[in-house]
């Protein structure tokens, strides 16, 4: 599984199925979306439950009440027609049509009609009308292709149709208004769920950002708000800020302690070296003692580098010039050979001094522990690769490599590798210092065993300063054409 931000060529070998399973188990919906979906489901379920409760307790009773009103209208119209003479009956029919929008028409034997029973509620209204108007009553929604609410009844053996506006019962039968109401309710519920989920998860998101800041070493960059309304969130924020303050003070005390101890040791160490050179008559013993003193001095330098403050000044730096400067001190040694292929115009965003320390530490680490088996000589290959505005610098030796169990531990302070890589003449801080410096410059360090057989590979990811075409390269400090595989 490739490291985030590294190109496929820099990927490590395939991880075990157990590690892939652990990675898959960590994926899924964020807390915001889980909260949103749960709240949305709750609100929509509540809305549907209220709608069903309304249909049960209010909708059907209102429909039956409307059916009773229609039945009363039919009964009144029938009674008025029965008790009026022929002339008054015509006037009555005209008045009903003009003022009440009720039309009475004869029921012919060849009339075509559609019964009013398309839904359970319409069937219930029809049953109520039949129960109130008598067994011979017909309730239709369309007669001779004319829509409306048609009620068929008899007067002294003659059959009639009474046509009224369907709106008398359509208000309780639903329709487009109910659909719009449900859609509006769902939309309001979703918006409310999103706002609630954001409000609930915002403190957790702020806490995650602050925790990431503390993990990267910035203890005061993202302080949490201590005056929030919620008591629980306020207590968590106050506790986290106090913890960050204590960690910042502990880190400052540690750096001061290391720097002070290292600085105080240098003065007696210098006197000891001078006294050794002047008072020890045996030349071989004097050389060994001087070497031991130099080793102690080197360890003190490592402590000073490790305790160095994390503030760096980032600016465009020529990668070829920095690496050439790091290679130069090793050019006269017989136990190391360095092959570097770096484009001349490749520039990265970094601190030039810190970047030089990074490559010096990596080359020195390879010189000590990366000797080619059977030769006693270390061969180091340095190459670059560009990917999406990022520069990947690859430093590889041809030594015995590192066991898979020890690879993740190499960057821990004071850790030394297995017996194949333990010329233990240092403090075990070299790679820890490299990781710290690279992270301070916004980069990333990754250590793997070479896929080509032997050797340890250190891959450094840096931000490219300018995207320019590659026109040349440096190989051991001499300008040559760029390696197409770099």
Describe the model.
The protein is an alpha+beta fold and 486 residues long. It has three domains: 34-176, 2-Layer Sandwich (Beta-Lactamase); 217-302, Signal transduction histidine kinase, dimerisation/phosphotransfer (DHp) domain (Helix Hairpins, Orthogonal Bundle), CATH 1.10.287.130; 311-480, 2-Layer Sandwich (Heat Shock Protein 90), CATH 3.30.565. 50% of the residues lie in helices and 17% in strands. It has eleven helices and 14 strands. The protein has helices at residues 17-25, 31-82, 86-99, 120-133, 167-170, 176-215, 231-279, 283-306, 319-327, 352-369, 430-440; strands spanning 103-106, 113-115, 138-143, 146-155, 158-164, 315-318, 336-343, 347-350, 378-387, 390-397, 444-449, 456-463, 473-475, 478-480. A seven-stranded mixed β-sheet has the order 11-12-10-9-7-13-14. A hairpin with a 2-residue loop joins strand 9 and strand 10 (390-397). Helix 2 (31-82) runs antiparallel to helix 3 (86-99), helix 9 (319-327) packs across helix 10 (352-369) and helix 10 (352-369) packs antiparallel against helix 11 (430-440). The radius of gyration is 44 Å and the shape is rod-shaped. The two termini are 23 Å apart. Residues 1-27, 418-424 and 467-486 have low confidence and may be disordered.
